[in-house]
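Database export, one record per block. Field names are fixed; values are copied verbatim from the stored entry.
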Amino acid sequence: MNTESAKRGWVVGITGASGSIYGVRLIEVLLQQGYPVHVVVSNAGWRVLGEELGWSAGKREQVLQEKFGEHPGQLHYHPIADIGATIASGSYQVEGMVIAPCSMGTLSAVASGASDNLMTRAADVMLKEGRTLVLVPRETPLHAIHLENMLKLARLGVKMIPAMPAFYFQPQTIADLVDFQVGKILDSLRIEHRLFTRWNGGQSATKNSE
């Protein structure tokens, strides 16, 4: 693990798209590896966390501490309206940002340069500072505007990792599928992991343990 990267940490955004488990699992793995993680959750994201994972949005910082407090990495929660947060400034050093899952509304805002909340502002900072920005779109079917926005951002160097799990490793549980997706995100961040079995030419293999 790169010491300097760990010192700077990562920003993880969770929007109101379905698939909040992807962001939650990513935060968990980054913290397990000792990275500081700055978390931003949209209001719609909190609603989806409640509907999909049963989280309470009443005491947000308390809930996050209960879910992630046991891990060695430092968790920093930033309310979506806090445009004065550290991660809203390019002078604050972080390694990069992942929005997982990323709604098409947030993707559109990032593509157009809108910075009307901390999520989109932080993403804009990644772009202007030339830092890693990864979006995990979760929508289907996709229409032309969705695709055009993704193409625009991809041409700017943003990494698109849609929620498209593979099945060649014979996943047995939903957790296996989630780990595959999170593993692909970590690959794009160049962070080592053992979340899924890599393709080995078709030979039978079992999932690696973390």
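Remark 1: The first strand starts at residue 10 and ends at 14.
Remark 2: The radius of gyration is 16 Å.
End of record.
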